[in-house]
Design brief:
Elements: H1 2-20, H2 30-34, H3 38-57, H4 63-87, H5 90-127, E1 128-129, E2 131-132, E3 135-136, H6 145-166, H7 173-201, E4 205-206, H8 207-224, H9 228-235, H10 241-265, H11 270-274, H12 278-301, H13 303-315
Parallel strand pairs: 1-4
Antiparallel strand pairs: 2-3
Helix pairs in contact: 4-5, 5-7, 5-8, 5-9, 5-10, 5-12, 5-13, 6-8, 7-8, 7-12, 9-10
Length: about 325
């Protein structure tokens, strides 16, 4: 059902573009202005996309084949990315290489994020006191915390960025990525400490603490995932705008897929979930938190160099 609504939304967006395309002429780029018969081309692309989508849907029952195709296509895109970067002039190539470093960090973020997100629901069903200021929250209510934080914190972060910009202090994208990983570290370690406390005192975890943990990883999500499309748009050449966005969403898909696969075989699996094994979940939090700390440390080591590279790239664009 969710995919159907997404497809309908995309179809409506394309129809709106066809109807109002004449109003977009002033904002078109040089590539768009050179081509004629845009409506025919757009309709052709839509038909081709529908055909490809239908053919791909036939593969969905065959999970192993679908997974293999996905990994092969991802490898092919990565290879084409490197070949394309090698053929560009120095400044554009540097932009693509810096973007590649940040894309790899985004993959790692998604892998760790999926470990936290997929197992948090299991923890909340067995080891969390859902009583909040006298009301017992339904188990599914936990799922709205993340989008609630996204809605609340997005304008706040935008305002913070604006204030820093007005003071001639730009928070560069690598800095946002680094602090996003740091926020994810905090989420894991808070959960680890809570599990230790619950085990030592034979208690359950308060839902208020879960609210705080979700708040931290929601900030992490805003600092990394929300700025990803902007990152590739800035660092890759303007003529590769569509390709850049595709690369970003492929990166997200790869991170989510790897994260889901690891989560399926992790020590805190369905068996431990059913048996309310807090000890394994504590170890799970500390192990993933340690990995996040190592990645964060490495990112901060190269942070200044990445920021300087981005400043140089933007100055020569």
């Amino acid at each position: 059902t969710g995919m159907v609504f997404c497809a309908l939304a995309l179809l409506i967006a394309l129809l709106c573009y066809l109807v109002f395309s004449s109003r977009f002429k002033l904002s078109d780029n040089q590539v768009g202005k050179k081509h004629s018969n845009k409506k025919i081309r757009t309709i052709g692309i839509v038909i081709l996309s529908l055909l490809i989508s239908y053919l791909l849907s036939l593969l969905l029952p065959y999970e192993d084949i679908t997974r293999l195709i996905f990994y092969v296509m991802t490898g092919g895109v990565l290879l084409s990315y490197l070949i394309t970067a090698s053929k560009l002039h120095k400044n554009e190539a540097q932009g693509m290489y810096v973007a590649l470093i940040l894309l790899l960090q985004a993959v790692i973020f998604w892998v760790l994020y999926m470990q936290l997100f997929s197992n948090l629901a299991c923890l909340s069903s067995k080891s969390v006191n859902l009583n909040f200021i006298g009301y017992v929250l339904p188990h599914g209510f936990i799922q709205i915390f993340n989008p609630l934080f996204i809605i609340i914190l997005s304008p706040i972060l935008a305002r913070v960025y604006e204030k820093f910009h007005n003071k001639s202090i730009d928070i560069h994208i690598p800095t946002k990525f680094a602090y996003g990983m740091f926020m994810l570290c905090i989420s894991f370690f808070i959960l680890g400490v809570l599990c230790s406390y619950a085990l030592n005192n034979n208690l359950v975890i308060s839902v208020a603490w879960l609210f705080i943990v979700i708040g931290f990883y929601s900030v992490a999500e805003l600092l990394i995932i929300a700025v990803g499309p902007s990152m590739v748009a800035k660092l890759l050449p303007k003529r590769m705008g569509g390709y850049a966005q595709g690369i970003w969403y492929l990166t997200c898909a790869m991170g989510i897929k790897i994260g889901a696969n690891i989560s399926d075989v992790s020590s805190f699996n369905q068996y431990n979930c059913v048996n309310n094994n807090l000890r394994d979940f504590k170890s799970f939090c500390y192990i993933n938190g340690t990995i996040a700390v190592i990645i964060t440390f490495l990112v901060f080591l190269i942070l200044r160099r990445l920021n300087n590279k981005i400043i140089s790239i933007m100055q020569h664009k």
